[in-house]
Structures are given as structure tokens and as C-alpha cells.
Write a structure and sequence with these properties.
Shape: rod-shaped
Largest sheet: 8 strands, mixed
Radius of gyration: 35 Å
Strand content: 15-25%
Helix content: 40-55%
Number of strands: 13
Length: 437
């Protein structure tokens, strides 16, 4: 496959992805007084983040009355929860979290990002100690919780105690115990506005009874994005892209590995874009890097374009993964895995049974009577005449046969007798007869 075809295909795929804005994934509703309900159930991941992106984009576009997010989760990925928190807390629309059973760990962060919180009888919120429980992770997550609580007008000390068990909270958790609040305790400390048994009761409490409700749940593309946003899957995709790039270089641009790299990149950036992680900057950096690598192939740049292209691609991955130390660690591990797999393939594949099945093993050898050029050995020592000037190449005739020859650097005019002095493959060397007397 031509390299240009591969590149055009990549650009068309990326344009297609960028053209599918989250607001275009669902039909637009005509009413502007509607309430949008979002169901968050199960593990918090990139798919849930994509769902929040879609629902809140629609709420903003339609100028909805309110968004009610029903939460029932034990927690999940902190990075996905932070993305959801940012989208919720920045929304100009009234936001209501309805805790149905529990909002633990990452779910607690999502809940306190809302302007209002309702909780079902017997529900709970909190228990957000991060895993692994290192000083750094505890400090980072605690800061996120405290800042979120402060932004929504709640006591940040309560949020900190949900993350850091060394703090405790008087009357609710002793130092050494992680804070988790029941329904009535959440009311007491200002982390819930009402205890409500169902959605209708919640809407009635906030003056939204009778408003049309449009419910959003996970769709197939969001479930797929959630799977792709799993840290293990993301690392595997990065490894695949690195491995394909190295293979493409090794095979001198055959095109197959380039297609694999493009598919891996589309899956990586597409899922990250749907979840709100990758923006245009990251995608443009990647595309720009590909363009620079192509320029390096066709324009002598002493490696400048190639280095700049690789740097741009690596920067796009780094920023998409978070732009921090864990992102650098993930990239390093993926690159190391790709190098190991590549070296294994280079060493083992040519001798494997699979390779023998897909690559022709027959060879045309001299022992079998095959030659790569005509055999002119019978002309050694024979003489002939030049039919053209030898400058130093030209044509002579021996026994009525025309032969292409060279004169070892000498100029030989037409009609001069020459003798064949050497045969090297398809090369016939001659000298004028008078020079060999």
C-alpha cells in the first residue's frame, strides 16, 4: 500500500472522530425547560466520563433547567472522576446529585461537585481513601476533595476526612478511621440537602416537579470508550503503536505496520477524546509529528525533521496520559515492552513455522542451475571488434554476437580489435589487442 494512501486514511479517520462531537451523538430535544437525568452506576471509568461529557454538553446547548445525576458506585478511576468533577462543577446549569444507595470513593468526589445533593434513605457517602495509600496520593486526592467542597460551599474538613483517615471528624469518625456518612449524618454536616425515596421526590424538593425529564445512560460507544480508557488497555495500545512504528521502519515502509499504528492511534486518541482527556492540541501534535516524519523521508534534514516528529508524537502521548510522572512511567514501560517484543520478533520470527508458512522459502541457487546473469565465460581470451566507441562502455562483436563491454577506463575508437580479459558477473572487460602483445 502506498504511503500516501495510509496517511490520507489516517487524516480521514481523525476528521471523522473530530466531527462526532458529543452533542451529536444523541438527538436534540426541542424543549428548553427539560431536566436531564444521568444514571451513573457501577465502576467509575472513562465510559462514565464520556456519558457525563455528552449529557452536560446537551444540557448546556439546550439551556436545560437542571441536571440530576443519580449515583450508585463503590468508586473507580480517580482520573475519570476528576474529569467528571470538572465538567459538573463548571456547568452553568443547576446540578443535583442523587445518591442512590452509595457514593463512595471516586463517587463521593462526583457527588460533592454538584450544587445540590439528595440521598436515598439508607444511603451513604464518603470512604474515599485512595489505593495505593501513599503520602503523595492521599495528599493529591485530599486536595481535590477539599477544593471541590469549598467551591460548592461545603465544609472542606469533612471532605478531607473522607480521604485521610489520620484526620478524623469529631462526632463522626475518630482519628485513624476513614469518614463515611449515612443519610442523616450527611444532612447534619451539610453534605445532603434532602433525604428522598425516589427521583420524583427529589425534583419536587427543588421545584422541578412536572418538568419533562430526558434520561441518559451508557451507550455502546461510551462502554467501548470506557474499556479503552482502562490503564492496562491504554498501555497496550501505546505498546502496539510503538511496535508498529519500529516494524514499519524495519520493513522500509511496506505499509502494513503503518496501518496498524494508525488504527492503534485512532483507538487511543478517539477514546481519550470521547472522555474529555485529549483535546485538539494533543491530536494536532500527533498529526504534526507524522507529517514531520514524512518530510524527513523525502527532504534531507540531517535528522532534524525526524527528531522533531518523534518528539511531537511522544509529547502528544505524554499530554494525553496526564502530563505527569505516572504518564512518563506509562510511556516508558510501553516503549520498553515494544522494544522487547520487536527484538524477539526480529530474532525468532524468521525461523518460526509461521514465517515459513507466510514467506516463500524456495531459492534459485547456482547449484540448481540458476544464474542471475548470462554466462559469458566462453568469451574469455577471444577477440572481437568495437562496433561503437568505448567511453569506457560500448558494444563489440565476437563471432557475430553483440556484447556490452567496458574497456577498463580507456577510450577505444570504432573498428579496433579487442580481447576479452575478464568476466565479473554480467560485466565483460576488454583491452585493445595491441595493448596485450
Amino acid at each position: 500500500m502506498k504511503l500516501k494512501t495510509v496517511i490520507v486514511g489516517f487524516f480521514l479517520c481523525m476528521i471523522t472522530i473530530l466531527g462526532l462531537a458529543p452533542s451529536q451523538l444523541v438527538p436534540a430535544a426541542a424543549a428548553s425547560d427539560q431536566v436531564i437525568a444521568v444514571v451513573i452506576k457501577g465502576e467509575i471509568d472513562g465510559g462514565q466520563a464520556a456519558l457525563i461529557q455528552r449529557a452536560f454538553s446537551e444540557a448546556s446547548r439546550l439551556n436545560a433547567k437542571a441536571v440530576i445525576v443519580e449515583i450508585d458506585t463503590f468508586g473507580g478511576q480517580v482520573d475519570a472522576a476528576v474529569q467528571m468533577r470538572d465538567k459538573i462543577s463548571d456547568s452553568p446549569v443547576q446540578t443535583i446529585a442523587y445518591i442512590k444507595n452509595r457514593a463512595w470513593s471516586a463517587g463521593a468526589l462526583i457527588a460533592i461537585a454538584h450544587k445540590n445533593i439528595a440521598i436515598v434513605p439508607g444511603g451513604s457517602i464518603g470512604a474515599a481513601e485512595p489505593i495505593p495509600t501513599t503520602e503523595k496520593t492521599v495528599a493529591a486526592v485530599k486536595a481535590e476533595f477539599a477544593a471541590t467542597a469549598n467551591k460548592t460551599g461545603r465544609n472542606p474538613r469533612v471532605a478531607e476526612a473522607m480521604v485521610d483517615k489520620s484526620l478524623g471528624f469529631p462526632g463522626y469518625a475518630e482519628p485513624g478511621q476513614i469518614l463515611a456518612l449515612t443519610d442523616y449524618q450527611a444532612i447534619q454536616v451539610g453534605y445532603a440537602d434532602v433525604v428522598a425515596s425516589d427521583r420524583e421526590a427529589v425534583l419536587a424538593h427543588f421545584g422541578l416537579a412536572g418538568q419533562p425529564v430526558v434520561e441518559y445512560q451508557l451507550e455502546g460507544i461510551e462502554r467501548f470508550a470506557g474499556w479503552l480508557s482502562n490503564p492496562t488497555v491504554k498501555s497496550a495500545l501505546l505498546t502496539l503503536v510503538f511496535l508498529a512504528i519500529m516494524t514499519e521502519i524495519k520493513t522500509a515502509g511496506m505499509g502494513v505496520a503503518a496501518i496498524v499504528a494508525i488504527i492503534g492511534a485512532i483507538l487511543f486518541f478517539g477514546s481519550q477524546w470521547l472522555t474529555g482527556v485529549a483535546g485538539l492540541l494533543e491530536i494536532l501534535l500527533f498529526i504534526g509529528g507524522i507529517v514531520l516524519l514524512i518530510v524527513e523521508l523525502y527532504v534531507p534534514g540531517f535528522g532534524f525533521f525526524g527528531i522533531a516528529g518523534l518528539g511531537s508524537i511522544l509529547a502528544s502521548f505524554f499530554l494525553t496520559l496526564g502530563g505527569d510522572l505516572p504518564a512518563l512511567t506509562s510511556m516508558t514501560l510501553s516503549l520498553a515492552a515494544a522494544i522487547i517484543i520487536f527484538l524477539f520478533i526480529v530474532k525468532r520470527l524468521p525461523t518460526s513455522k509461521l514465517w515459513k508458512h507466510v514467506v516463500l522459502q524456495d531459492a534459485e541457487t547456482t547449484q540448481q542451475g540458476f544464474t542471475s546473469a548470462a554466462d559469458h565465460s566462453r568469451y574469455i581470451g577471444k577477440t572481437g571488434k568495437t562496433l561503437t566507441q568505448l567511453r569506457p562502455a560500448g558494444i563489440i562483436e565476437i563471432d557475430g554476437v553483440r556484447l556490452d563491454v567496458v574497456s577498463e577506463g580507456q577510450f577505444v575508437p570504432v573498428g579496433v580489435a579487442v580481447r576479452v580479459i575478464a568476466i565479473e558477473g554480467g560485466r565483460i572487460a576488454v583491452h585493445p589487442v595491441e595493448d596485450n602483445k
